Amino acid sequence: MFSRGKCDNVKYDRLESGSEAKPFKKKICALKIFYFSCFLFILSIIAFIYAQDPSKAPYAIPTGQNHERKDSDLPTHLPFLQTPHIYHTSTSPSSPKVCDVQVKDSPVIKVSHFNTYVIGSYMEHRFSEKQIKIIAIVLRNEQATYSCVMCCNGRTVTSPAEFSIHTDHFSFEYGTASITCPINSTCLTPTHVALTDRAVLGNVESFQPIRNRDIQTAFPYEFTICISVMYDYKSVLNLVQSMEMFRLLGAQRVVIYKTNCDSDTQKVLDYYEKRGFVEIIPWTIKKHIVVSHGWKNYESPGQLHYYGQIPALNDCVYRYMYQSRYLALQDLDELILPSKVKTWTELLPELENMYGSSVGFEFENNHFPFTAKAHMDYEQDKWKTVWGTNILNYIDRVPNDPNVFNNFKIIVNPRLVLKTTVHGLLDSVSTRSTVRVYNSIARMYHFKNLTYPPDTALIRDNRLWAYANDLIPAVSKVLQACGLIEA
């Protein structure tokens, strides 16, 4: 059967019966072939299982024809990069079940029968009776009636939901909504909730965990920054400069609602995420809704204001309500800089002594245009290969008109906030929600490409340079660690 294989030249001890030697040799040879075949078969099975195990390559980017098209119904000029995070997709085999229903711990969950998308669910402790607060995106002209289905110790309890649409929708079709679920005596400690059509009973497709179930008085973070939304982002140098400035100011956590970015930006995000400084919230609303690239619907077509910025900010407030003493609600190109001290840790006690602790603090926006003259005192040649603009080169600001309203961003105790918006608060537990901080104490530095009248008398303001000696080596260290510049 085999021609001159391994078994043909094998020598055995002489058997007493010559007539039995030949069959014995064949038997031994057959056993070796059998054992060798079994070994190969087992090895093949192990290799096949390993190849099919997705956990062996948790950071792999999908390939093939379904990669980017499947992720987005809108084309973008930057590749979408998946970021490892704590959420499970609806098809994940490891997703747990409660009350015999799958759990989805993701920030965008569609409600059946309605154009409603649940972002996050949170226990609300600040009223006489506890309730569940759901942050959602809703189609404003849709006549929706909701029920809250809560999971309590393996059984479900249903109650009618009430909702209000936030007023800062900027006339887009969709807006942010606060949906409340009353908690009754039959379910005092729900762990998960689902939003359903009140007219359809028993239609629970997935539960979302309820966060903030316990009131915390000790906070893991003193200052957290809520960033929304990262979309088509590639200004790597500016990202690192902002992150390191946030550190120098005293922030311990930065939360980014991310749609997509380029590969170098992803390297930087991975760097900070692994060190616990950044939390990435996957922001996938554009799979369901056409998002606008601006805040004026007649200039930037779409169904939802500016990439869904407002629902993301509201979710961030509730997500970190009992994790952080203060929240700064701002963008990556904005820095809130104190004028007399160097950190927020020093600034906030001073502000609370002046204005009290039951208000948020407004910091007036001041533009520092990249179109102005560059001051090269802190120019770094080794940064020139990295995409972005060195903010240290731009210390001239456009004067604000004191006779008109000037926008601002806030730092606030999140436990004061009921509804937030891009600039300030829509609703709070305090009768006086925010106060404007004097520019002599602190202001917001906004670095961006900006055109201004040629006869504008720019104001020299080099406050940022007070951080330069600490900022420059910190930025270089991160760029080197990410392989973006040489050591």
From TrEMBL:
Membrane topology: Single-pass membrane protein
Keyword Glycosyltransferase assigned: yes
Gene Ontology CC: one annotated term: membrane
Entry EC no(s): 2.4.1.-
Compartments where found: Membrane
Enzyme class: transferase
Keywords from the UniProt entry: Glycosyltransferase, Membrane, Transferase, Transmembrane, Transmembrane helix
UniProt GO molecular function: glycosyltransferase activity
Stored InterPro entries: Glyco_transf_92 (IPR008166)
Domain of life: Eukaryota
TM spans (from-to): 33-51
Protein family per UniProt: Belongs to the glycosyltransferase 92 family.
PANTHER family registered for this protein in UniProt: GLYCOSYLTRANSFERASE FAMILY 92 PROTEIN
Name of this protein: Glycosyltransferase family 92 protein
